[in-house]
Amino acid sequence: MPGDMASVPGDIAAALGSAAAAPGGPWRAGAKVRLGQAAFLLHDPVTVETAPDRGHELRRARARQLTPVARDVWLIQAHSFRPTPGAGRALDDLAAQGLLMDRLRILPGLPRLIAAVPGAGSETLVVAFPAAGTLPEVMGAVPYPRHVLDLLWRGLPALCAALEALHARGFAHRALHEEGLLVTVDGRILPRDLGAAAFAGTGGDEPGPAADVHDLAALVYRAVTGIRPGSPPVPPGMLRPDAAELDDVLLPALDQDPSARPPLARLSRSLRHLAL
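The structure corresponding to this sequence follows.
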């Protein structure tokens, strides 16, 4: 695992006071949280997903690390309230994601793990957050006007390259969505985390790169039309006449049969041509 975080200086500890929450305390925007010996100030968005049996929570938040250096980070925490099978899986899955993120840290475009912080009934990943905003923050509401679509076309090659690097090593993200994508100051679109790459698909999850092909095509479809693709999807050109060129690009990638979808490299080339 990456190196441990430095101790919290006395002035920061004093400033935190009673507002500082233990790792198992509630997460909300404005809360100050200790992880190991480091302190973080949570910002929006903060999301908390509670398991149906209320045995554990999965928490995600943008934060400002206060010590040992000031920097923006993305925090992901699995916290167990009691030892249930679901809680155990959640902790194991997040630990596995941390190991994979550290293993793939040399690959460009993929998220960089700063630290993995185990706790009593919790596992937390501290991930570097580049100078960026989420896709909705930067691009605005769907459907995107033509000038915003031009920004999307120019940013997607970086995302495709990151996903292809992941696929080349036998993994797939399998959880692409708008809030989980970052637009950097130079216009690149990158994944905020590794999604479900670290663990095998269960239930209705589709394993492998074909899932990423579908999710990427669905994301583009919604950006263009303003709605999610149905089954089967309406050709985007019927919903938006100036998007007819996307019919032959997106519809094969949205095929219900994963084996019928094109490889990511082909979808990437087609999307790249739109930026020319």
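The first helix runs from residue 10 to 16.
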